[in-house]
Specification:
336 residues; alpha/beta; Rossmann fold; Dihydrodipicolinate Reductase, domain 2; six-stranded parallel β-sheet; five-stranded mixed β-sheet; 29% helix; binds nicotinamide-adenine-dinucleotide; Aspartate dehydrogenase domain-containing protein; aspartate dehydrogenase [NAD(P)+] activity; Asp/hSer_DH_NAD-bd; NADP binding
Length: 336
Amino acid sequence: MASSSSSLRIGVVGYGHLGQYLVERILKDGAAHGLSLAFVWNRNTDKLKGLVPDELILGDLSSFAERRCHVIVEVCHPHIVKEFGLHFLSHSHFMVGSPSALSDSDLNLKLRQAAQQYGRTLYVPSGALWGGQDIQRLNDSGALKALFIRMSKHPSCFRLTGDVLSDWTEGEGRRVLFRGSVAELCPLAPNNVNTMAAAAVAAGSLGFTGVQGEIVSDTVLSDYHVVEVEVTGPNGFSVRTVRRNPAKLGAVTGSATYNSFWNSLLGESCSHSKYCIHFPEVKLHDVKTNQINCNLWCRLYRSWKKILNVFTKKTNMILHGLKLQSIQFYAFNVHK
Ligand SMILES: NC(=O)c1ccc[n+]([C@@H]2O[C@H](COP(=O)([O-])OP(=O)(O)OC[C@H]3O[C@@H](n4cnc5c(N)ncnc54)[C@H](O)[C@@H]3O)[C@@H](O)[C@H]2O)c1
């Protein structure tokens, strides 16, 4: 694929369901959105042959830097986030498709520090989480008191590290597999609770240990996954959402999540929303009025592409009369 020098070069790490979808979309529609494919890596290279142009196949992930990506998107496994996340951030912005990896507090801190050190952004796509931006706003205002997420799926859709589900039988109905903090749940079901992990990122004041979750196996759910989110604020304020995400039997990822990932990559939701991407950590210092202004930033920079272009430069820039006071290192892409 010809890539224009001005396009954002994307490296895709993982060629499972999500990776295949993203690669296909970038090859088909990327040029129209200013995106081009820099490489695709999969632990089994044979899976890529004939489907991805040879020159875009990366054989050895350790040599990713040679492909000079603007953004690396991980869509395979939290292990890869742990093994390569810091390296990725030393060269590129990094979208963590498996944010359950961030439940490791040491890794989480190191990734944030690396992003800050190298002036890169660690992106967490909203995936199957509905209302993440609202959760984040409540969190940032100091009003978020509690957050609970229940994820229910057909037993064939779970990939658990233990054998708690090894004896399931069709027709057995509903079984609560685990209830506890998201920090405890992530190692048990690293591929299944990324939505909870994204919520724990949005709810930074509660974090992975404060946000509570529950995973439920239900043989009735042969056509969709269910994500229930309960947000509690002050003085009796609460919001409860239920999201049904159509999904095939055995699929880790619900079908609506594919498009959600693509939108996270494009920042396309910006044109439909007052706020495009909310930056919890970004602080803009308006030199004239001496005010911190986050919302203005979001209005000014409505596309992720532009944001990335800006962040490839250094801090302390004057932008439209605003002085960038601190570089953000943790962004949360809005669900659409
Ligand atoms: N953020 C979210 O809301 C969200 C939603 C759905 C899926 N996910 C995550 O995104 C990732 C990809 O999802 P998917 O539906 O494409 O899954 P998938 O099972 O279809 O594909 C995963 C791919 O990664 C490879 N892989 C598995 N373990 C690996 C390892 N240890 N090292 C290297 N490669 C490995 C597999 O061979 C496969 O090619 C998963 O981690 C999944 O949990 C996140």
